Amino acid sequence: MQTLTGIAASNGIAIAKAYLLEAPELHFTKKAIENAEDEIKRLDQAIETSKSELEKIKEHAKQKLGDEHAEIFSAHLLVLSDPELIQPMHDKISSEKVNAEVALDETANMFITMFENMDNEYMRERAADIRDVTKRVMAHLLGVSFPNPALINEEVIVIAQDLTPSDTAQLNKQFVKGFTTDIGGRTSHSAIMARSLEIPAVVGTKNVTATVSDGDLIIIDGLDGKVIINPSNEERAAYEKRQAEYEEQKAEWAKLKDEATVSADGTHVELVANIGTPEDIEGVIRNGGEGVGLYRTEFLYMGKSSLPTEDEQFDAYKTVLENMGDKPVVVRTLDIGGDKELEYLDLPKEMNPFLGFRAIRFCLENDDVFRTQLRALLRASVYGNLKIMFPMVATIQEFRDAKALLLEEKENLRKKGVEVSDDIEIGIMVEIPSTAVIARQFAKEVDFFSIGTNDLIQYTMAADRMNEKVSYLYQPYHPAILNLVNNVIEAAHAEGKWAGMCGEMAGDPIAIPILLGLGLDEFSMSATSILPARSQIRKLSQAKIAEYKDELLSKGTAEEVVELVNKITE
What we know:
The chain is an alpha/beta fold and 570 residues long. It has helices at 36-65, 67-79, 83-96, 100-116, 121-142, 165-169, 189-197, 208-211, 233-254, 281-286, 310-324, 360-365, 367-380, 396-415, 433-437, 439-443, 453-461, 479-494, 511-518, 530-538, 542-547, 549-554, 558-569; strands spanning 2-5, 7-10, 13-20, 156-160, 176-181, 201-203, 217-221, 226-229, 270-275, 292-296, 328-332, 385-390, 425-430, 448-451, 498-501, 522-525.
């Protein structure tokens, strides 16, 4: 028996035999060619075959996982249609008279290296996209079969160095009970898809492929981030018991689906979900979500070759609002820049895009793009309980300017006889420390706050959360973060407004008691976290935790905070 540790990427426990998903050997020899035109045709044919395969994978992903995950393959198709990638390959074949394999390999590696060395996560993901699609093209050039996870027809745990988006999209959860990889993190494509498929996953084990052989019995512990290889009978029995207990726990949580979220001493809070596409609503309803706390509208803009039209946006917003009925739907206006770029917009290249021209800053300067979205939202507002929030707001003037555009478009629509709701709350995401510091001034003008802790933490701690060297500074429970959060909540309540949170921290089992004690009104999280959070809150006394509020806020370290939380809730 051997145990490896990694990152728990998707909850659950799975026990099955190992299935090594190995990349094909793509060895080739550099050759001089005589007819460059024929060699370019051979390359283009391999590219077209790859595109055809990706179209099929995209459709499969759309049916199994929804539009948001299918858009990954739209991005892959765009890579294979990008003249900036393809033309240098053609040029290399023509000028250097080398075979297509060499031109593909050298050009792809140049771009991969360039993107991997960039500072922001989005560009690093582009490197993975280029590697994925060019491997597929190379396999076709060499006449080598590419792995097809869709053909798996027995219960297995997939073992791989990494799972590409195209691999993961083809997994059939009927047979693939879980997976584990050498590399990856909780925010990688494969981890996100594992959570959508609701199968256990452990990533970042470093050496699982070198340690496991085909057919080995494997236990995936997606709760604690462990991989057990060829367990003893006693170990297997213990995990089978734990697996059964976890399934029983899930069944108990499911009973809370239609219950309100009320603490042990009667304090009601709202548990709502973060979504990216209309297809995600099914998961929100299935998991008992009391609304949508963050609709990330940028997914409407990504993986396309042009901006979405007003009608396309209207249809998406209308679908979400109708499906949620009278439950609140908080829509975040376009948040691009930082780690999210749109190829069809000529955005400036920046040294530090996370602190640059993004989100509301982009929208206010490109008000034609912004107005289109605002009109679509306003038209859809009559179909449900819409709330609109602006991201990355740093100054009160930015909020005033954005609100003015919204009200102007509202008046324009009404003059044209278009019905618009009179009950749209307008708020902001609090993700910049300066905004949290002067929350009292903002609270006089906004209808609500939603705290975006993912950015708030990294900005406050001056630590890029994607940089492994400083990842230890990404501390949700740090007293500086808690004091900023408390300041926002108190400012909202002083003006009779509500405060929510839509960052990862909102669904964190350690953070939940703290946030309840600080008086947070709304917790927005991934849909699958809602029922466990509801169960946890029902066992907590808000008043008891609130008694320790000053002590929590006065601690010096995150570790001291966690120690106190454990003492309060034990």
